[in-house]
Amino acid sequence: MIGNDNGQFKWGQSAFGMSSRNITVTQDGATQANYLNGELLDLFGNWQKSRINLDEKLTINEYVDQGTGETYHRLMINKSTLNKADKRKLVLCFDGTAGKFSGTQNTNVVKLVELLKKDDPSQQMIYYQVYL
Questions:
Q1: Which residues form the Cyanovirin-N domain (predicted)?
Q2: What is each CA distance from 66 to 61, 62, 63, 69, 70, in whole angstroms?
């Protein structure tokens, strides 16, 4: 969801954790906006200070656990800020082979799952179920 674009936080990317340090979340005293702050590596290997407004795309959701009755908070995507490019694909694959494969070859569903982009959950989520 947030990535490192040459030393600057950027929405629509992911995995900035491998090229960051001194990460904090702060709240602006005047606007009450929540910011992700940190230092990110640029393309030349230099550390750059960066800041991104989390409230641009995220909201805090409060919910009650039905089992314990305790109240929890979680970050969620603010649906009012989504545009068509921000939406993810959900791919559901159900392999109806009942676990019986022919020989040593994978089924067509297994081959399809192998081709799908699984490395970036901000773009696409995969669910694969066998033995139906």
A1: 1-59
A2: 15, 13, 9, 5, 8
